[in-house]
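ok so for the tutorial part 2 we go from a plain amino acid sequence to predicted structure tokens. step 1 is just haveing the sequence, like this:
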Amino acid sequence: MDWYLSVWKKYAVFSGRAQRAEYWYFVLFNCLAIIGLVIVDSITGSFDDDAGIGLLSGLYYLGVLLPSLAVTVRRLHDTGRSGWWMLIALLPLLGGLILLFFTVQDSQPGGNQYGLNPKGVS
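step 2 — the prediction. this is what the tokens look like for a chain of 122 residues:
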């Protein structure tokens, strides 16, 4: 839970680096929250089948958009890549797979142009 909260503390921080654990725990908690909110939207009748989104889940999507972008940029920085690499996800299927490959890679050891390795910082 600390990893998830640390991303919210850096709500719109696009500089620095993010460890794999910080990124993937944030993704996990977001997936669980979205599933829960879609269920609540379905029960309350606010889920629109045509749009594929409900009121609560839509509001959550909007609220989590900026921190998601920021933690993804910091994760790419941790692997030694520019945040602009996130745009590769716009390529259908292949772009998402490439971005997935980048985010599962281990951190660059030591410091890089984006800062010190967060694994070495306590």
